[in-house]
Amino acid sequence: MSVFESASDASASDAAPAAERHRLGSPGLRRVNLALFAAGLSTFMSLYCVQALLPEMSRDFGVSPTRASLLVSLATGAVAVAVIPVSSLSERFGRTRVMLVSSAVATAVGLLLPLCPTFGALAAVRTVQGVALAGVPAVAMAYLADEVDPGSLGGAMGRYIAGTSLGGLLGRVLPGTLTDAVGWRWAVASSALAVLASTVLFWALLPPSRFFRPSRIEHRALLRHLADPNLRRLYLIALVLMAGMVTVYNFLPYRLLAAPFHLPQAVVGMIAVMYLGGSVGSARAGGLADRAGRRPVLLGALALTAAGLALTLPPSVPLIGLGLLVFTVGFFAAHSVASGGVGAHAATAKSQASALYLSAYYLGSSVGGTAGGLAYEHAGWTGTGLYVLALLAVATAAALDLSGRLLVKLRR
């Protein structure tokens, strides 16, 4: 039997259904956590490997900041479109199979990025890369909801989100710090090779599904999820939260490279180190939500995000650094709690419920992030900050309306 077959859900369908789901402290959960951490790492390194390089690409290709931001928006927009059909396929063909194929194809496409001769070619490859990347985020949350005990789900989800935050960090810092020395093409190539290593680790560690059973693709499930008020609110939170996050990380480098700061590109590329705080915040918030309930933790995380953003408004590098750290911790904590709430709340077709969340999440990145460019070009950083604060206000209003099972403690 091949490695692929042994990891596929189809080959695991005869596993004993009486087996216990992975619990906190078990070897199985540790392996799941490591595998999904590697998957999140590689996916987000791929997705954001060009973000820190947008000012460099603006100069190289002679395009505006808003147009350069399409290199992020096209990839995330492609993910937003692809996650729903891919998640539906996973209901029929298996969680692990979809994730493994997706990660392999996305890694191969990423190796083409440094070879693109024009901005148009680079944009096209980024779009294809986004479609290929969709399989891991579309299915990972449903995989965890299937395989992990509900009392440990928040922590497991938080560790997966921690992997995505570290991937976002490395995807920005690695090329951002190398580009002054070797140029943006070699910088992107270095990210692609790091993604390849992480993908190999994911393939080696991912356990087969034990609780997944193939089911008929039911498109009505999407309508049922959209009819659920709690899920709709979580989807709205995902959309506006990610719009604000991508806006900040897309356009803060332009501010720091310009007057009065004039920081070098290598230093500006290091702002993604703040993602380390996001890794810690997401893991802690997921476990706290298991114990204290999701809504209070979510509201606290959103307040922290807004406070961090406010600190970036004065023209002070230390305040901007501190504010960005607080903003990033708050964002990933909120995302961890909201995404975990989707898997816990959806009674059926969990992968499709998670896919709708992710579609909203990446739609926010694609549309909201580019709209943030218009705010930056017309009103500077103050206008950008007000735009993001308005988005956070919408997320807070939606969180206040959450009810029912999303409010209860999972550990008695």
TrEMBL record:
A Pfam family of this chain: MFS_1
Claim: Nucleotide-binding is one of the keywords in the record: no
Limits of the Major facilitator superfamily (MFS) profile domain: 28-411
Molecular-function GO terms, alphabetical: transmembrane transporter activity
Alphabetical UniProt keywords: Cell membrane, Membrane, Transmembrane, Transmembrane helix, Transport
Transmembrane segments: 32-54, 66-86, 98-122, 186-206, 234-252, 297-313, 319-343, 355-374, 386-408
The keyword Transmembrane belongs to this UniProt entry's keyword annotation: yes
Main location: membrane
Compartments where found: Cell membrane
Topology within the bilayer: Multi-pass membrane protein
GO cellular component terms, semicolon-separated: plasma membrane
Family: Belongs to the major facilitator superfamily.
Name listed for the protein in its UniProt record: Transporter
Species of origin: Actinomadura rubrobrunea
